[in-house]
Every structure is written in C-alpha cells, then in structure tokens.
Description:
Chain A has 443 residues and is an alpha/beta fold. Chain A contains 13 helices and 15 strands. In chain A, 37% of the residues lie in helices and 14% in strands. Chains in contact: A-B, A-C, A-D, B-C, B-D, C-D. Bound molecules: pyridoxal-5'-phosphate (PLP) (2 copies).
Amino acid sequence: xxxxPHTDADRARMLDAIGVASVxxxxxxxxxxxxxxxxxxxxxxxxxxxxxxxxxxxGRNRIPDVSFLGAGVYRHLIPSVxxxxxxxxxxxxxxxxxxxEVSQGTLQSIYEFQxxxxxxxxxxxxxxxxxxxxxxxxxxxxxxCRLTRRSRVAVSAGVNPDYRRVLxxxxxxxxxxxxxxxxxxxxxxxxxxSLEPLADDVACLVAAQPNFYGQIEPMRELATVAHDAGAxxxxxxxxxxxxxxxxxxxxxxDLVAAEGQPLGIPASFGGxxxxxxxxRMASVRQMPGRLVGATxxxxxxxxxxxxxxxxxxxxxxxxxxxxxxxxxxxxALAATAYLSAVGPQGLREVxxxxxxxxxxxxxxxxEAGVGVRRFGGSYFAExxxxxxxxxRRHAALAEQGIVAGYLAERDAPEMQDTLxxxxxxxxxxDDIARLVSALEATR
Amino acid sequence: xxxxPHTDADRARMLDAIGVASVxxxxxxxxxxxxxxxxxxxxxxxxxxxxxxxxxxxGRNRIPDVSFLGAGVYRHLIPSVxxxxxxxxxxxxxxxxxxxEVSQGTLQSIYEFQxxxxxxxxxxxxxxxxxxxxxxxxxxxxxxCRLTRRSRVAVSAGVNPDYRRVLxxxxxxxxxxxxxxxxxxxxxxxxxxSLEPLADDVACLVAAQPNFYGQIEPMRELATVAHDAGAxxxxxxxxxxxxxxxxxxxxxxDLVAAEGQPLGIPASFGGxxxxxxxxRMASVRQMPGRLVGATxxxxxxxxxxxxxxxxxxxxxxxxxxxxxxxxxxxxALAATAYLSAVGPQGLREVxxxxxxxxxxxxxxxxEAGVGVRRFGGSYFAExxxxxxxxxRRHAALAEQGIVAGYLAERDAPEMQDTLxxxxxxxxxxDDIARLVSALEATR
Amino acid sequence: xxxxxxxASDTSGRGSAFSGATGxxxxxxxxxxxxxxxxxxxxxxxxxxxxxxxxxxAAGQPTLPASAxxxxxxxxxEVSELEMLRHFNRLAHLNQAIDLNFYPLGSCTMKxxxxxxxxxxxxxxLAESHxxxxxxxxxxxxxxxxxxxEQLKEISGMAAVSLQPAAGxxxxxxxxxxxxxxxxxxxxxxxRTKVLVPDSAHGTNPxxxxxxxxxxxxxxxxxxxxxxxxxxxxxxxxxxxxxxxxNPSTLGIFEDQIDQVVAAVHDAGAIAYMDGANxxxxxxxxxxxxxxxxxxxxxxxxxxxxxxxxxGPGAGPVGVSDKLEPFLPSPTVVLVEGGATDVLRNARDGRxxxxxxxxxxxxxxxxxxxVRSCYGNxxxxxxxxxxxxxxxxxxxxxxxxxxxxxxxYLRVRRHDVYDLPYDRLSKHEVVFSGRRQKRQHxxxxxxxxxxxxxxxxxxxxxxxxxxxxxxxxxEPTETESL
Amino acid sequence: xxxxxxxASDTSGRGSAFSGATGxxxxxxxxxxxxxxxxxxxxxxxxxxxxxxxxxxAAGQPTLPASAxxxxxxxxxEVSELEMLRHFNRLAHLNQAIDLNFYPLGSCTMKxxxxxxxxxxxxxxLAESHxxxxxxxxxxxxxxxxxxxEQLKEISGMAAVSLQPAAGxxxxxxxxxxxxxxxxxxxxxxxRTKVLVPDSAHGTNPxxxxxxxxxxxxxxxxxxxxxxxxxxxxxxxxxxxxxxxxNPSTLGIFEDQIDQVVAAVHDAGAIAYMDGANxxxxxxxxxxxxxxxxxxxxxxxxxxxxxxxxxGPGAGPVGVSDKLEPFLPSPTVVLVEGGATDVLRNARDGRxxxxxxxxxxxxxxxxxxxVRSCYGNxxxxxxxxxxxxxxxxxxxxxxxxxxxxxxxYLRVRRHDVYDLPYDRLSKHEVVFSGRRQKRQHxxxxxxxxxxxxxxxxxxxxxxxxxxxxxxxxxEPTETESL
Lengths: 443, 443, 482, 482
Ligand SMILES: Cc1ncc(COP(=O)(O)O)c(C=O)c1O
Ligand SMILES: Cc1ncc(COP(=O)(O)O)c(C=O)c1O
C-alpha cells in the first residue's frame, strides 16, 4: 500500500493530460546504463501488521525497572500537557516558517523559546535550534573561533565525552586544534577543571556546569582564566540546574550551549533532542542557526518573522555562519511548552527534588557500605561513586533490570570502579533502596 | 493541587469585590444543620504520583495474550488516524452543539454520522446517539410501543443477554411486559429464533442479526412474523457485518438498534461505547435522542443545526420521547472517522477476514477434535462450539492468558459445555493454533 | 452564520452525498461533506489478506446464505487517509471548545479537562481490557471501580453507589426506577404515582418521571428562587413517590430550606431525590447523604471533569441511602477478600493490597436490573478517579470555593448591567435576566449571545431556566482566571 | 499580514514580557506572548515533596556552594495548565500545515505523514529507551537501526549507511568530512581543496563545503537545466575534492548525463557526492550506488515522511561506497551473532531471530568520529522504518511514480499560465517562472504567493533556485489528490 490517493482512473487522466502512454515514459530521462536493477525489500504491510512488527521490536527492548543512568540524557516527568501541545498537527506537520502569514503559530512559539532560553541562561540572544547539545557545543566553539579569529579550542575533560568527540569532528573541518584541559580525577580530588592559565592563541575554553561527573565547577574562575587569555568562555549547562545555579550570563560566559532534552523530551534512544545556544547580542551576526524576531505588519499589528537571515546558508551560501537548515523545531516547542507548564516554581521543585534524591542516594550507599563519593566539593543531581568491582556489578544489576548509572571507565580509564549515578524528581525512595540492596547482594 | 488558576491575591480581590470577608461567607446559605462534616479522602497527588497510581491499577489487569472473547464487544483494529481525530480537543472539549455558530465542526460530523448509519442500515433516519447498544435496543422497543400504542414487547432469546436485561429494566418503567421468543438451542439445532406467530398485542419483535451465538437469523421471515401481528421488527445488528449482510431496511425492519463499539472504539472494560438507532422517516417524531439537520444560513450558506428538538426533554419536558440529554457524541465521532477511514472496501475486508478466521477456527478445532459446532446453519464471525468440560478448561486457559471465548452457560443453563468464540481481522493464525493446542493440553 | 430551524427531512446526506463534488467556483471556509470528497476506489486504511492456510481450512465451512447477503455495498466515502484527516481537522477548526477559550455554558460545568486524565484512560492495561474477561484478569479495573465508588460515597455521604448509569439523565432514570421498586417493596407501588418537580428543574427530571411511568407535578418557586415550602407541603401526600430537587438549583442557588424540604418529603413517605449535576459548587460543604437524601446522581463528566466530547460521553453514577441499597442496579463490584480499610490505606499510598480480590456481584434479587450493558462508561471512571486523586481532599474543597468565588464575582461585576432576578449568594453559576435590555433597547438575550460570540467566547446558556425571562446562565467554573 | 524584516535586536521577549498584559481594548486574533499571561504564584504542573526519610538522609550531604547559586529565579511564565494549553492551541490555529491543506513547498516534500508512524514512535519500549542502556536491554532499538540501514542500502545501492546525521545538511557535513578523510588517507588531503557545486544547488551544499574547510567552485547549468559538462570537465582537476550534485536537481530535473558526470568526477580522482534530498521522485528507478556515487545523504524526513515539525527534527543518514566505508561516523550497529539473511527474512515475516545479537561498534580507527551525541534522531528512524514497511517494495515504487505523475501533470496544466524555463520531464517538482507576469502586469511572484495564501494553501517555494527568475517551485508530492 501507499498513502497515495490516486486511483487507476486518476493516473490515466494524468497520463493523458501529460500526453504520455505510461508512467515509465516519465522516467525516460534516466540514462539506460544507470537505471535501477530490482531491489529486495519486504512487501507492504497493512496497519495492523506494521503495528505488530513495531510492537515486536519495542518488546525486544527492556525498559529498566530502576535506572540511575543519566550521562547527558535524563528521565524527567513529561507533563501530559506537553505531549498535547507538540502532538497538534498544526505544529507537527508545518515546516520552516518562511511564510510568516501562515506560520505565526510556529514563529511566535520560537520567539517564546528564545526568550525562555535567554531567561534561563541570562544571555541576550538564543538560537532556535541545534541538533543536540553536542553539536550546539561544537558550533559554539566554531563561533568563538570566528569571533576571536583564533583556531585553537580548549575543552575541559569534565565536558560530556560525546560532546568532546563531536567537537573534535566539527573542528577537524576547518582544521581547528582541540586541546583538553584536565580535571582533577584523583580519588578524593576536586573533580573540577584545572585553573592553569591558557595559551594566548586559544579561542575559547569549553567547560560544563555541572560537569560530566555532576561536580560543581568554579565557573567564575574559569571565566577569568578564559578572559585572561583573550578567549571566550563557552559554558555547557544542564537546563534544569539553572533553576538554582547561577546563570552563565552572570558569571561571564560568552557563549552557552546545552542539551534541551531534560525539558520535556523523551530519551527515545538518543533523539530527537534539541541543542540550545545563547550568546551576547554583540556576537549575533556570527551565530549559526535560526532566529525569530518581533516586528509589526503594515497595519501595525505585532507579528513574528525569521530574522537576520543573512547569516544563513539559504542566503549566504558558502559565506554562511553554518550549514544548518532543518533543525529541531518541534523539540524546541516541547521545551517551550515544558517551561511554560512547570514555571519557575516547578523547575525549582524539579531541581531541588533531583538534588535531594542524589544526596539521599549517596547517604544510603555510604550507610550500606556499597560505595563512597569519589570526589570532594559539591554536586548537582549526578554523582560519581567509587564502588569496588563496579564493572561486574553494573553488568549483574543490568540483568535484573537495574541500571546502576554510567560506568565511568568507559571513557576515562583512570576512573575505574566508579559509577556516575543520576537522580531526578522521578527517582523514588524505593528505587534507591532497590539499588542499594542489589549492590549489597553482588558484593 | 487543583487546576484552579487563582492565587491568594486573586481570591482576595474577588472576595473584596463581592464584599465578604471570607470564602466561608459564600456558603452561609447552607443551613448549619446540614453542613458537611469532615471527609476522609486521600491527599492530592502530583502528576507523576497520580500516573504511578494509575499505572499500578492498569498493571493489575492482565490483557490476555490470545483472546476469542466477543459477546458484544469486539477487538478490532482502531486505525491511528481515528485516534488522531477524536483526540482533537476542539471536538473533545466542546459540548452539545446548541450554538451552531461555534459548533459547525461537531454538527457536520454528527450529520455525517447519521448519514453513514443510514447507509449501513438502509434506513432513512438515524439518531446521534445512545449510551450503548443495549439502551438503544430498549429505547427502540419503547418507541415501537409508542408507535403501535401497544404495551408488550417480544424479544428473541438470541439477543445479547445484557441487552435483554436492560430492555426488561427500561420496560419495567412504563409497565411494559417483555415476553421471550425462544431460539432453537438443541444440540445440532438451528440456533435461530422461532417463527411461531406472535400474539396480536405485541408492539414489536426484537431480534438480532447475527444473534448472540453468531448464527444467521432468517430476518425476512421474522419481519413477516412481526408484521403479521401488526408489530414492528426491531433489528439488533452488528455494524461490521453490514458490509456483507442485507441491511435491515431491505428486509423490512422498522427500527434498528446496534452497538457501535466495533467501529473504532476500544473495549475499555465496557465503555464508553455508542448506541446506534435508525428508523423510517415516518416515525421520526417518536424517535428519542438527538438529530442534526442541514439548513442554510441568512446568506444562503449551508450549515447544520440540531433539529426536531420538540421531541427532546429540554423543550418538551415530561412529554419528551426520552429523557436522554448527554449521549456518546465523541464515540459517534470515532465511528464516523472509522467508517470514513476504512471505506466500503475496508469494511468488507474486515468482515471477510473476520469470517474467514471464524471458519479457520472451526476447522482447526474440529480437526484437532477439541470441539464441534453446536448448531447447523451459517454464522458470521462468532461461533458456538461444543467443548467437553468447557467451564474447567475455560478457567484453566484464562490462567495462561488465553481467553477461550464466552462460556455460554453463564446466561443459558441449557448451553452447557459451549464456548462462543469470536474472531476479527486481528485474529492471527497463530492465535488459533495456540488456542487449539491449549485446549488439547487440558483434555 | 445565523441559522433557522432545519427542514426536518434532511438529517442524512444520502440524497445529495454522491451527486459529485461541490463546484470549485465559490470560495468559502465551508467544508464539504465527507461524501463529497469520495472517489471510487480511493482507499485509506487497508487490511491483510487471509493466509493460504486460513483460506484452505475455511473453505470447507458454510458461507453466508445468499438470501442474507446485501445487494449493494454501503456507499461509505472513499477517501485517502490525508483527505479524511484534513476533513475532520478542518471541521475541528469550526468549533469553539474549552481548550481554546472561555466556555461559560451554564449548568454544564465547562471546566478544564486535565490532560493527565487522558493519559490514564489510554493506558493499554485499561483501554484494552475486555469487560467480560475472566475476573482474575481484570482485578485492576475492578479495584478502580471499587475505589471510585468509595470516594463518591465519601464525597456525597451516601451509603452505596452504582457507577452503571451512562449520564446524568440515565442516573435519574436509575434513581426513579429504584424509587418505584422501593415503594413496590412496601406495597405502595400502585398508590404512589406522582413525582414532584420544581419549576426551575432541568428538563431531564420531568422526562425521567414519565419514563418511569410517573406523573409529574410541578412545584412553583418562591420569590427567592427556592422551592415554595407551602406549595410543596400541599402537593405532598400518599400519592407522591418522590421529590426530585436540584441543589444547588439551576438558578445557581443553594436551597437554604433544604432541611425542611427533606423532612417534609420524608414525612409524606416519599423519596427525596437530589439531582447532583451542580455538585461542583458544594464539594466538602454539603453532603446529600448527611442531609437525608435517599438517592442522588452525580454528573461525573461535570464535577469530575471528563471531556464533554461535543455532547458526551458522560457518566451518571447514583448514590443511595441504606433504604434503597437493595434496589441498586446489578452487578456491583464487591471486595470479597481483604479488608476495605487496608485497601483504602494502601491505595492512598499507591500500593496494591496483597491478597485483596474483587468480584462482580450479580446476585441481587431486589435489584432493578441492568440499566446498561457491562458496568458503565468505564473510561470516564478512569478519568474521574485520576481527577479525584490529583485534587485530593483539600483540592476538591478548593474547587468548590473557587467556583463559587468566581460565580459571585461575576454576579457583583455584572450586576449593574443585567437584572438579577434572584440577588442572592451564587453557587456554581449566576443567572442574569436580559429583560431590561429587551424592553429598553429591543436587544434580546439571543442578540447578546451573538455579540459574545464575536469575542470568540462561547455564549452562556440562554432562556433556561424557564422561570427567568430572557435568562443568561453563566457558569465560570474554578478554572477561568481573572 | 504583510511583514517587513524584523528589527534585529528584538529576538527575545524579555524586555517587554513582564510589563503586564496587553490592554483589552483592541480586539484581534493575535495571541499575547505566554509571558504576558503570567501572574505571580500561578501554577500548572507541580511536583511532590521529598519524603522525610530522603530529607533526613540528604541533610548530611553538601549543599550547593553559595557562590554557585543564582540570585534571582528565572522569570519563566506563571500560568495555569488551561491558560498554557489555550495559548499553544491558539497559536496552532495560526499555522498552515499539511494536515489542514495543500502545502506544495518545493524541495521540502510536504507529503502526508502517516499517523501510524506516530503510534510507533510513542511505543514506551522505544520512546523510553535510554541511549546508554546496557546493550542487552536495547536489542530492539539496535535491531531497528540495523534493519533501517539495510533498507536504505537496498534503496540506494550504497554499500554502507550511517544513521547518525540529524538532518540533510548534517549528512552533507558528514559526507564531506569523509571525503576529506579519504583524500587524506591517500596523501591528497592538502592538495584537494575545492568542491564543485552547480549553480542550482541548495545553499547547504556550499555552506557545507566551507564548514569542512573547502573552497566552493560554482558550476553553471546548461540551457537544459542540467550541469554544463564542459564547464564541469574544465573545473575538474587534481585540486578538486568532490562534486556535490543534487539529483533530481532543485529544478525538478533528472540529470540525464549523470553517467558522464560521475565518470568525469572519478577520472579526476574526486569524490561524487549526491544530495539525495529529492529521492522521492526516483525510488526504484535510480540507485546512486549503482550509478557510481561514492557518498550521498538521505532526507529521511522528506522521502520517508517524518513530520517536519515547523522546521525539524529531521534525519540525514549517509550512504557510502566501499571506498568511504572505513570513514563512516562511529559507532555503527553491527550484527555480531546470527546471520543477516535469517534476520532479514524473519523481520520480513514479523519474527525475531533466536540468538541474533547486535552491538555498537565503536572501534573504527579511520572513522571521522562522531557528528552527534548518541546515534542520531532515533525517533525519526522508528517513523521511517514504519513507513518503509507499510509501503513495501511495490509501494515505494508507486510513491515515486505518483509523485512524478503529479509534478508533470501540474507542469502541463499550468504551462500556459506561467513560463517554464526548462520545459522537460519533471521529477519531484516543477519550477515555473513568474517573469512574464512581472513584466507584463507588474505582478511579482511574491504577489502570486500572497494570492495563493488567500486560498488557504501554503505557497510554493519562491525565488529559488536562484538561476530561475521569479521562481515558483511547486512540489505536489504523491499524496495530493486531483
Ligand atoms: C441540572 C441538570 N440535571 C440533569 C442533567 C442531565 O445530565 P446529562 O446531560 O448528563 O444526562 C443536566 C445536564 O445538563 C443538568 O444540568
Ligand atoms: C536539495 C536540498 N539539499 C539539502 C537540504 C538540507 O536538508 P536539511 O534541511 O534536512 O538539513 C535541503 C532541504 O531543504 C534540500 O532541499
């Protein structure tokens, strides 16, 4: 089956109007030498069959009963009302709002998205939107290079390893070198980024707050380190933490990048998510991606349009700030709906409850003697715990449907026997009790 | 929590405007002697907590892996597009379309619903809508009494037992006597309604096509039996079967009642469903329930309005044809969307595939020696099978998550050791194989 | 659009439906009928073919007798999935709805229908549960129904509740059938033939009385909008089966002599029925059971906020006092293993009770029988249960406080503009009269409604209750902001 | 509304957002900003309080350092759930969308997005699956990705596919990074610095070249709208890294010298990149891999019909020939236990293969690395897989046939009205020119678009491709009926 409405009579009518005998004639422009040979694809399925097939695949995944896995993707409540908003087909089945007369819904909601991200980050301008937190980070670093006209990027080892890999790949394009600024990974150490001075040819310092291990970084000091070298500070942040943590705009960040997934977007095995980016107004002309602005129409009514398009590929082509075109608009709408639904008080409750449960978890693990904090200092809602024989126990618990966080040695060999455990407002006391007793049982 | 938007400041402002000191003053009109004492209800829950509680309850049900249960409620495919339509909040959060200017969506869709039901049934006018098939049947019988000015109702024992019980209850109101017309339940018998003449004070004969045991009734003959007694024929039909079976309008039915659940509505433990009713135009003024008509507005544009409201309780009060007010409009929309999505060809495919699988099932059971058809004659997509020790085996299979249809002796003691098994287009060959081997294993 | 009453004969699109598409000349937002979009052979949803094995095995079995076959396929529309969807989406855009704007339709409690309720109703464990599944597979559904009934008992003060009725009017029917069964059980079935109904009552009340074979006697209201106690007392007698009273009334007024009303009814040996459609105003403030009512119905879809669906579905559970309990519709959900207190405490904490078991009790010899197939509009129970648990004990009280605040606020704010025939405390709604506007300016309530429409707001209920001239019945509910 | 370019400085509502609600005097359909609906203390969604036990245990743990705390809460809107919902519902009503009407935006393949795809994407087993879950818990996700990649290989004739890129442009970036890695591996990394791009190309092509550090050289089109072979040949040389060609092109034309184009590129030692955005026209008719392309991207959201979401998400998988395979982004999904043929056959029949196991292979030393976190826009893979399985081998061919039929039908039907700069067979779309209208009547393409708007239809793409004066680019797709 297809979703084509055409009956054979319709097809005959069209062929007739076109003046060809058969549909094959419409493909006569494909040179014979390169015409497709037959393919081997499965036959069509009716709706009930295709649903059975997808249910089969979904059933081959096992959603853990208890999970402390975060590492950049967090299981938060997605209020039902958020699903209702992004499920509306007027949003879902429209495209890029080039035509403002018939796209005010999309345009205004993007404008609100930008405003919300500015509020959260304390920055002056936010784009809408990037593929994910990793590419937003990479594009922010490239932007810093354009702004400073430098071509080295320093990145803290406390930034999500996936982001660092993407940054490497993006930088390899224009031949920008990426240097890693270490963090103190020693057992009992600070778990935060080194404050050593940077070389003065560095375009930016990329650092994460909280960092990959959940640790609170001294962002103000890192800003000074960056600025002393004439570099920009790119702050990679976790959006729910900004209910409590100082906004990057206040501690001197020049650019902000973030993964928007925690704001009402399901884990969905890695995407679609939404990358957030914010900057100072002075840098706006070097920003990659879409921007919507408020304006007035001929009769003075307020309206919204795509603005500053002269940065974009469809106008500037090879001189564009980025090649990004299709982005993650519907996911930006999810974040907009989420932030509107939870409000300042709700976001604070999310952050506080997530933090409380992280501390509850640490206390419970330490009490039971199944793990101790690896670092000093403070943390947000994810925490690195030293757990003897972590790899084996992590695997054993997975068999029982319990995911004991992220195994740190996957990316950092010096982090053996360390689990990075995330909590959110959905983490129950019971989850913590089950994890602890499962760890006890595998001692 | 509540969904109230009012802050304490809002409340103070309202109290102030009203000129009272506290909200308690607004309840001063409740006599002290009857003021509510304290109640014992659980505390409020946040969205995540209430979802956990509902997930708990849903988890306490077990949806069978394999089910041949029908008995009036059928598990058909509900195309995704049907869910999309009835999920639109412009339909879901509107109410009775008293105000046509802001209700054309609801009104036109009801008009289409009525037209579709007329098409399916071959009748001239259809209402929108009744609580379910049982109450539609009862209201149709009462209507027949009004039309014939008689006060006895004859009902075939082949009508769904639940419908017969509801009919009894409704008839007990105005003191109408219900007499049962037997069906031939003998092993190897016809399984259809007796063609004995009816007494001449009977207002109507209520008979089902197919009947509760899936058997095809001689509706034309039953119409003659009814008409010979000056009575009306109330045909109770299953809507998907009307893709293939003669429409009641063609065999002389005066009134039609049906359960609309098979048309895109989930089983949902018994409701909400939608009752269908159709009649001849000559009887329209005695019809209970809502009707929408086409009209033109002042400037000649087509539009739709509630019509013939002088039958209804809000106009006629104690002289109304029924007390029905809120009905099952959104479920009528589901049926409208369903019939539009499947079309004549799709409905035919549903009916044919359901029938084929019923026959496949019978053959497989007979081949394996686990059951034989109880009746002669033909059947639609539900079939009465004689299975030794049926009650024990039905219970044993249920433990394994296999529901072996409906145990006929629940309602008809003479039907011991009989399972009534339903198939639909969702019944797979594998389902049949699993049922047969489970029955074999419990021999 | 201003519309006249439609010609009675055109209630089906069959006549014109297949005469071809409407011409493309005239541009308008009007959406053609789905039939007009039809084209032969066009398809949306398809189904699989039977397997060869199924076909072979089926071959030996009886087909349908030729005499039972239809001659012509039903002329359902033939459209693509996209055409079908666009059609209904465009129709949707022609509706006003709570989710778009203020919808103060009086007597209908058009408040916000929380989306989490929809989430619950769609849980496959509930939505796919067959009503006749063996009880061992359906304990979750049964527990939910039992819990909801317990909550409704606690909210209303009634001794027992049946969830079976599908709407308010259906609850009325159920209640009045029980009333008759009760009188019959006492040998007064034939002597008590009248039902008293105040003149402000909703049309379903007298219509229900008729359906049960009773004669309606209308009781006039007094000048304060309450029931005229003298008129009531003189109408009461050994021929009266029941009084059906709506409280708060359709005037938005609490019957402040309710204690005397119930006493008078009981003195006459009649049944006191409360139409609980307007419960939204009195949660936690007044419990009909405590005030002596024998039977009442809930409009679950109103008070407990299930979406009204353009005219339904709803749910109309009935609550009864001990004296009517034996007559409740059958079956009822009963807890047969485990203690009620344990179950309630555990459910409060979100836990199942080990060993608890429910069954459907269909062995109720005095029952009026069934009023609906299965057990009622279960999907609405799921939503109402979600709503009650979300709001909780305190939240339910706040609902009524805020609904009453809003109605009174509207009353005082619009007091200067419209006449207020009964200028008393409002409960869920306030009923204005447009008589002054009509007399002084020739502006009718209908004209006012059309003007309200132009603001994108759904007009209030009009010309009801019948005892108010040019009535405008405004129910703001607790979910509209200032 | 006719709008001017917005002032650059106002891209955030912060300035005015909290200055209070817009006055009620002026009636208009314009919806205020969500910030303007805000009122202090108003709430929608709430969260639970931590338990006493959690609070006690947490008490001994470090809090956040005061220096890291924010001084003022972010000024997010404070609205009720109903206000929030109405706001977005009303905004939705200001949009045009495929689900409402014809949306022939050229180059965007705005076809019907089947609702069953959404059903699939919402299956909890998929939607709630964490990307870093242990592989043993995620075999369903891995199998789905593997199957989809196999299908894309079969459709395109490419040797290997990576699903990682999040959109078409991201696929281009990935492809060009691989191109560079390839040349580097041959010691030509520094010498090949140019990328050839036809003048009809989409802006993302040259922009991509720049992001990879290449210099763009524009190749002019010939008078038939194809690439000028002479110009191409003379531009090719040892300094050229690749040709990026869109086929069918943005003119809706199939490059009928494609065999010679690819040969010329290969002769020069360069990489042949195909922008597959317009694959919707050639399914089953042309496979880039068979024609010798080294790398291509798919616009999954276009050809395989995932909803465009007002500007995304999309997905831009890349297919490569064997020679580029080592450079694909890491990780890739590999089947490590069980045979591919078995798995494909079983999946065709809706069955799992006992013992089959997939893993994420991240040990790819020549890989360009990661271009995105995790594995790509998985939710789009679910939809595309559903779509491919629904349509099947035959259906996919029909898609292209009907899409091409529709485009050619439009071409001949509007031929008299508009100029057709390249009057040849159309593929997915047809590009008209409004130059005649402009010259003769002073009516610009923009004016025409506005007139189309008045019919409730979304206008075609305008003023693109750049080489057509007053271009009107119409892509009807296969899902619009006559
Ligand atoms: C006071 C009153 N009683 C009864 C009813 C009937 O309820 P339902 O429409 O649910 O049948 C209504 C409904 O509007 C009502 O307002
Ligand atoms: C021809 C062509 N190439 C590339 C792209 C870029 O794809 P995306 O928007 O998915 O990044 C587009 C998108 O419109 C296109 O039409």
